[in-house]
Amino acid sequence: MMKKAILFPLVVSVVAACGGGSEGDSQASGVQVLGTVVADAYLFDDDAIKRVNSRRGTNYSAENGEQGKSDLDTWHVCGAAYNSLVNPSLYNQDLDKDGVADTNLTDDEGNLYYNIDLDGDKVAELNLLTDREGIYLNVDMNCDAKADTNLDNNLDGISDLNIDVDGDMQADRLIDIDGDGKPDFSYTDSDGVSLAGVKVQLQGKYGEFETITDDNGQFSFERIPTGSYTLKADDVALDGSNIWTRTLVEIEEFDDSIGAFRMHQDPIITLVNVNNESHKKGFWQDFSWYSSDIETEYAIGDTVWVEVTVEDPNQRPVTAKFSADLETGTEEVVAGDGVFKYQHQISEKDAEEYMVSIMAELSNDDGFFGLNGMTDVMFGAQFMMADYIESEELEVETVTVGDEVFDNPPDSTYMLVEVQQPIAIDGSVQIDVEVTGPDERIAEFYVVGIKDGFAKVPKGDSFLFEADTAYPQYIYEIQYKTYSEAPFEHEEVVIKIPLDTDRKPAKVDGLMIDGIVATDVMARVGETYQLKALYTDPQDDVVQCRFEKAGNHSALDSVISDWGVCEVDYTFKAEDAVDQFNIRVLVRNSDGIITWDNYDDLKWYEVSVTK
Residue 40's pLDDT band (boundaries 50, 70, 90)? Predict the structure, then answer.
């Protein structure tokens, strides 16, 4: 399709049509979502489009979808261009012997001009006159003996591609500019074009819905459940840059106005010069270069520089922000005419690492940041250091808890230690961590659930854990972290020690809403439902429950009911009707021992809520 050969901002207009439904409908019911993908005509590539039509002005207006009538003089512009292509003996052929010429008709000057049979098969292929007054097919406006306007591909006497709507013999509708025989766009009444073959997606709570715009740039989604969705369209322009759009739309049963939005287009890097040692030319939105590719290293005192050429398809001003390793004092904001240069002198601090990175973020002024939500274009050049001396790598070797010794796998920055020997509720155990690496580093322990929140954090690689300093837990957790700042490295160990007890925690088994599994319910705003927590408790202790709202819901109004009974009534609110709305169920029994914080178990359940 033509979309590989255009530069355009995109507008998508969307309307949600009411789809009916009743209280008992499942999520399969919903509304129809309609829309059109539209772009600005003046941004199309001249070379690709000039062979089929001219630019339209703002006064263009015609019925979209019906070929317009034209005078012969409007398209009879090629003069003697075809005369040498057909043997003169075949001019003005009367094939059905009715006294009227059928193929290779000539004008008053004797030049071929319509119903031209180029291959001698007695069937006209070019500049076809039809039995409808002013309607012409397979018209050549470029005088190259190839049809440009009103293409009739299936020989049914009706235009299929490059249709002239207003009779000027310039294509207006279902235009194919990449020559693949498929329509790429149609002109609109407002100097724009509707785009064919563009993928449009709706992403929301019920998954992802996808469709493709038709020949007229229109699309539709059927039976979409009400709720919040992200509407997406993505493509690649002629220069290789990404063009895309994202917008949040609210699909409601009785509100059929969603609005329109514009596709954003990013600037691109087209040329990179690094120290006059490496020159790169192309199209990039995320560019990286390494001096190791040219086997060059840089010493303290050397100056390195980069020069980046950036083009914006819509000629918007671009600003670049450079820095060396994001270090304070190295930042420089550069506003230029498309060429941005930055230099940096290698310091002793730079040589503490094996490379120094010159980085840049470049964005135009349209307020969108297409690459990652923070910038349009990223640039990075990594210069290898000649004076770098690699330090000993920081690594935890072993962890000893009481009499148990645990080995850490090589090159692992995270280690989980699950101790087998339980600890009494008033017992203690010695913990020792063996570490190799730089002498200058920080090491500390942290006890999860410690009673004294203001207690000093134990420092060093050894720690005596005393169980009565923490709230009783079925499994105690002690976290150990050690890290160095230059170079930055870190290691983490999580130690789990079981409590010496026969007691067991309560467990959440499920959530029912009015007797139905929560994930199968479509709750409605304003209606009251019974929430019931399902749980098991090995000791048949007294069990308390707590219900909370989570997911996309605001934490300001998160508690449905505090610790108490495990069956409560709840009236759903308008703010609950959002994607990824969850109800959290927490349980605890009465034995005074917890699994985490102040509860035994916690589970999330996604609940569908509609207005």
Answer: low
Cα–Cα–Cα angle for 256, 40, 13, nearest 5°?
10
Please state, in angstroms and rounded to a whole number, the distance separating the CA atoms of residues 32 and 47: 39
Cα–Cα dist 356/320, whole Å: 19
Q: Which of 470, 498, 526 is the endpoint of a domain?
A: 498
CATH number of 297's domain = 2.60.40.10
**Cβ atoms < 10 Å from Cβ of 43:** 16
How far is it, in rounded angstroms, from Cα 19 to Cα 555? 33
Q: What is the pLDDT of residues 315-369, one digit of tens each?
A: 788 999 999 988 888 899 988 788 999 999 999 888 888 899 999 999 988 776 7
Residue 428 has pLDDT above 70, yes or no: yes
Please state whether the predicted TM-score (pTM) of the whole model is above 0.90.
no
Q: What pLDDT sits at residue 50?
A: 63
Instruction: Enumerate the β-bridge partners of residue 236.
Output: 242
C-alpha distances in Å from residue 397, one per residue of 37, 462, 477, 484, 494: 59, 14, 20, 16, 14
Task: Average the pLDDT over 531-554 and give the result.
Answer: 91
Quote the domain boundaries for residue 424.
Answer: 395-498
Four-point Cα dihedral 370, 374, 379, 382, nearest 10? -140
Residue 328 and residue 419 in one domain: no
Q: Would you call 24 exposed, middle or buried from its count of C-beta atoms within 10 A (0-12, 13-18, 19+)? A: exposed
> Can you name the residues that pair with 335 across neighbouring β-strands?
319
| Assigned domain for 407 exists | yes
**Residue 34 predicted with pLDDT over 80:** no
Mean pLDDT of the chain: 83
Split into its structural domains, the chain has a count of 4
Same domain for 365 and 403: no
Beta bridge partners of 605: 583
Are the CB atoms for 150 and 163 separated by under 8 Å? yes
Q: Are residues 494 and 431 in the same domain?
A: yes
Residue with tokens 């049963």: 253
Peptide bond into 472 cis (omega under 30): no
Is 430 or 182 the better-scoring residue by pLDDT?
430
